[in-house]
Design brief:
Largest sheet: 6 strands, parallel
CATH class: Alpha Beta
Low-confidence stretches: none
Order of helices and strands: HHHEHEEEEEHEEHEEEE
Distance between the termini: 64 Å
CATH topology: Rossmann fold
CATH architecture: 3-Layer(aba) Sandwich
Strand content: 15-25%
Number of strands: 12
Strand order of the largest sheet: 1-12-7-4-2-3
Structural class: alpha/beta
Number of domains: 1
CATH superfamily: NagB/RpiA/CoA transferase-like
């Protein structure tokens, strides 16, 4: 290590000495920030707020009553856009009765570049911005959220929170004091950019289409 670097790091250590306990206390407290009024909704109003914000972000939304209705909703969406009835699904979705739609080909092997439709399960969502929250794990690989041109996400209505702070609290509670998931994806609408001449382009860094199936919010 160069002497100049040693001097710089030495000054940083000296300046921060004694503040370590205070920093650890603040990190452990998880004090939430101010929550906007639109993030303070409850019940049916919260679900409708999420749907409105997700739609405003160019996502499409279908509401179904139970998990048993999910296969039909997926087929309706694919047929409506003239897409092949084949999806690459996360393992976390194996409990859904896909056999109700025998023409739908559901592949639970790892998604590959070129697979057109990816199907994911969300940990939760944020009503104030219409944002989905998806965590990495053995049954929820992140690549399913990023590689396909069309991304379909299954979300339980009961998992929609009002604000970002509420989702982080759930994540910490679920971790039980252990490590958080390696990756937490916050997805608001399809991938997009307007870097070139301020022209909006969908699908720049991920899926061009985002469709959300909300379970338990039959509407």
């Amino acid at each position: 290590m160069s002497s100049a670097r040693e001097q710089i790091l030495g000054r940083i250590r000296a300046a921060s000495r004694g503040n370590d306990a205070e920093a650890r206390t603040r990190l452990a407290a998880h004090t939430p920030g101010p929550v906007p009024r639109r993030g303070q909704t409850e019940g049916a109003a919260r679900i409708q707020a999420f749907i409105a914000e997700a739609t405003r972000a160019e996502a499409t939304v279908a509401c179904v009553g139970t998990q048993g209705d999910v296969p039909g909703a997926v087929v309706d969406y694919l047929k409506g856009r003239n897409l092949a009835l084949r999806v690459s699904a996360q393992g976390a979705l194996k409990d859904i009765p896909w056999s109700k739609q025998p023409l739908l080909d559901v592949d639970f092997s790892p998604i590959k570049d070129g697979d057109g439709v990816g199907l994911s399960r969300a940990l939760g969502a944020v009503a104030e911005t219409g944002t989905l929250v998806l965590c990495s794990g053995g049954a929820t690989p992140t690549r399913t959220n990023l590689l396909p041109d069309t991304h379909i996400v299954v979300l339980d209505a009961a998992d929609i929170e009002g604000a970002y702070e509420d989702v982080w609290a759930r994540l910490r509670e679920g971790a039980g004091g252990g490590p958080l998931p390696r990756t937490v994806n916050w997805i608001t609408g399809p991938s997009r950019t307007a870097d070139i001449e301020q022209t909006l382009l969908l699908g720049a860094h991920g899926p061009r289409r985002l469709h959300i199936v909300v379970v338990g919010a039959d509407a």
